[in-house]
Amino acid sequence: MLKRIIIGILTVVMAGAMLTGCTFFEHNYERDYKQVVAEVKSYVIENEVVEDKTDETTGETESETRTVTYTTPKRTIYKRDLVDYINNNQSSLSQKYSDAKSMVKGAMELLVNTELVINEADALIEAGLIEWGQAQKNTVKQRIYQVVDGSLISLQNDLLESRDNPQIDTDLDTLDEDPTYPVQPDQTDDGDETEPEPWEPGKSNFPGLFGDSDERSLGKQAMREFITLLKSRVKDDFRVTASDRKLFKQDDEKIQKTIDEKGISYVYEIIGDTHYMYYISGKNIERSVKINELQNYLSESVTVEEGEVNDRYRQLLNGQKSTYDDNVSLYESAMSGGTTTVLYHPNSSYFYVKHILLPFSDEQKADLEKYGEYATEEQKEEYRKRLANNIVCYPHVAGEDDKTRPMSVAQVMNEIKATMLPLESNKKLADRAFDDLIYEYNTDPGAFGNNKGYVVKNAETGNNYMEEFTDAALYMRENLEVGQVYYEPVITDYGVHIMYFASTTSQGEVRPDDYTSPGEVQTYYEIIEEVLLSAKRSVRYSAWEQNLLSAKSKKMTTLYTDAYSDLWES
Q1: Which residue of 138, 204, 305, 431 sits 20 to 30 Å from the alpha carbon of 110, by its own alpha carbon?
Q2: Using CA atoms, how far apart are residues 296 and 129, in angstroms rounded to an integer?
Q3: Quick one: 216 exposed, middle or buried, by C-beta within 10 A (0-12, 13-18, 19+)?
Q4: Separation of alpha carbons 568 and 103, rounded Å
Q5: Top CATH class, 349-504
Q6: Distance CA 53, CA 60 (A)
Q7: Where are the CATH 3.10.50.40 domain residues in the chain?
């Protein structure tokens, strides 16, 4: 299981970190880096493809099997590849391995194994068994831009630090994995399998187009330095071919033309398509997406029988009945913990709320904290209200703030009112509509994809939320109906919360076909099925991977240990 996870994230971690400059080893000798530490031979992979053929005369359809052969390229791993991988993944490797020798050997094994897995993925793509279309290309491009965004923020922080100015408070570790906010999954199944449109970066993220004069200047300077950084990364790289150099030259011409005709900010819209970005990050990101598609392909044949789900349901239900009736505190722990699927309620003392958080800016939070050092609680509350009036919100597009549409809290509240008031009598539509609004405006990570919402105990004690949040939730329980929004902004130190009364719990057991929320997005049966299916898929992939590596790792690969043993001996 661990090996599957590591291989799955291997190339993403490499791609994201290559522009950040972390180092574990400091080997800067050109000849040393050029040493070959491993080779994966070229070999043939055969896949059988079953196709339906229709006889033009009779109209009858028969299945025909053909064999598609794919010859893998010879793959060479240099010492520089190994050192880069260890430097960029030192944190995860240090947790897995206790000493330098085992770390280096483990990293070497992972690099070789990844090449073997990529060969299998490419062979399946060649056979048409794994799809590689616009959807996958869009994913690659989006992740390339996540690397670009992370690097631009890092460069801006370097510039701010040199000027003794506060830095941008952003967790760069998350930028290589996902957009800032989750994108709502499509809940419909209309059978539409049309090819998606090519993805393009939103104008909101163009550096130097938005904000005050200082912010625009900072963004433009970061873009200039980013272009310089790309060029420096490939300048002395011995792995760069003549073909690469030709493509880099074309990139230079395209970048300069954009600067001359539109300005430095507009280089952002073309930078993700440059060979610079493909060479430094895109190729590894592409490999990561291929591995993910391979895992999905291998999982397609895995199923869970209805009897398995029902057996697991009865096992969980009977266990909870005997446990929670005898010890209510264990029930309360399960409800507040959020990780247990509760199928039995010994009482009805809990309910659920959802919310949209419109946050204070970092500057506003700092002002509030400083003001609170000498102000009374009443003064602090009044100050928070004034700050809330100046919160700037942005609707989300493709998981990012649309900075072309700044909004006030009042404007967001009006949008929510216009959507939710007509739906109060229809709990299903109201619940789904508020979920849509969460994806459009919310910034609290825990609220996304949370079909039930946050659980609240119907009591003055026993809740771990901010006091204002708890008070508002209890007020809703007593005065509102399920499906209604509390239209008074609830202000905490985090910002403004727009709260929604999602559902209540009833004493007794839930059935497998009961929905977990009024929005009817998921049943308890589906939750249990999902857990069982995930476990089976992990076993399936692990078995496939083990068979592949045991059959081909030694036969198709050669390690040159002498070329890298100094990494643990030095």
Answers
A1: 138
A2: 11
A3: middle
A4: 9
A5: alpha beta
A6: 8
A7: 349-504
